[in-house]
Amino acid sequence: MDLTPEKIFFPSVGCDLIVDSSSLAPKILPTIIYETDIQQKTITISDPGMDFTPDTEWNQLHLTTILSTKKRKIRLGLACKPTAFLPAYGLAGKDKVKAVVLSFHPQPVEINIRSAFRLVLDTRHTTQAKLVCRKNEFFSPDHFRVRDISITGAGLLIPKNTQHGPNLLLGLTKNEPIAIGMRLVDTVKNQFKGPLALVGRIQRVYFEYSETASLVAVRFLGMDTELEDILSEFIHSAQIHQLRKFSE
Fold first, then answer.
1. Alpha carbons 41 and 104: distance in angstroms, whole number
2. Segment-wise mean pLDDT, segments of 10 residues, the chain, 248 residues
3. What are phi and psi of 88, to 5 degrees?
4. Looking at residue 173, what is its pLDDT?
5. Which pLDDT value is given to residue 109?
6. Which helix (H) or strand (E) holds 230?
7. N or C: at which end does the chain have fewer Cβ atoms within 10 angstroms?
8. Which pLDDT score, from 0 to 100, does residue 20 have?
9. Whole-number pLDDT of residue 244
10. CA–CA distance from 55 to each of 42, 49, 52, 100, 157 (Å)?
11. pTM, to two decimals
12. Exposure of 248 by Cβ count < 10 A (0-12 exposed, 13-18 middle, 19+ buried)?
C-alpha cells in the first residue's frame, strides 16, 4: 500500500483533525480536504471550528484518516500546523466558505486515539438496541433510546413512562453492570452493522434530565479491536455526513 500523503490526503477526503492525540482526552474535529499541495507541503481544509493560536505546536495537531489494510484498519495522520485562515475560500459552483491552510510533515504516522468524539445520533444515523440487566431485557425505543455514542460509552435517554406503565429502567444505579446488544443503522442507505455485543457499567444517572425522561451515562468495558473499528467507522461516516450537510 502506498502511504505517501498524495495517495491518502487528497481533495474531497473526509478527515479528522486530532488535537493532543496522545492525551487521555484528545479533541476530534471532523473536516474535509479542499486542496492539497504536495510541493508546498500544505493542505487546505474546511473550518473545523477551532481557535488556532501562534503557540500551537506540531505534536499537538494531526490530520488523520482511516485506512483498511489486509489485516486491520489503521488511523494514519500527518503532523501539521495552521499557517493561514481563509474567511472566503472559493469552492467550484458554491458560495465562499471558511477554510484553514495547514503545513504538514510529509511522513504519515499511525495515530492511536485513547478517547473519542461523542456522536449525537439523528434520524439518519441511529441504533436498534436491547439492554440486559438484573436478568431482565429492555428494548429501544420503548424502554430507552441511545442518544449519543462513542467508542468509550453512550448516553441513554430513558422515558419515565412506557406504553405499559412506569419504566423499570429508572431503577438503574451508578456502577451497575449491564449488557447491550446493538445494531448501527444508516436509514438513508438502509445499511446495518452488527449486532454488537457490548458490556458496560453505569457511570452517572441524571434522574431529573427533563420532566419526561432521565439520562444515563454508560461506560463500555473490554471492547475488542474489531468492535472498536466497526463503531469508529460508523461514527466517522456520520460525522462526515453531518459536516457536509452543514456546509451545503
1. 6
2. 82 88 72 94 91 71 85 85 91 83 91 70 94 94 94 92 90 94 94 93 90 93 87 84 64
3. -145, 65
4. 92
5. 87
6. helix 225-247
7. C
8. 79
9. 67
10. 19, 17, 8, 16, 40
11. 0.59
12. exposed
pLDDT score recorded for residue 113: 67
Q: Domains of the chain, with CATH numbers?
A: 5-115 (2.30.110), 119-245 (2.40.10.220)
pLDDT at 152: 86
Q: Which amino acid is at 41?
A: K
Name the residue among 208, 182, 4, 28 with its Cα closest to residue 106: 4
CA distances from 161 to 121, 141, 157, 184 (A): 22, 12, 12, 25
Between CA 16 and CA 82 the distance in angstroms is 15
| 170-208 burial: b if 16+ Cβ within 10 Å, else e | bebeeeeebebbbebbbeeeeeebbebebebebeebeee
How many helices, marked H, and strands, marked E, lie in the chain?
A: 2, 17
Q: Give kind and range of the element (H or E) at residue 52.
A: none
C-alpha cell at 195: 449486532
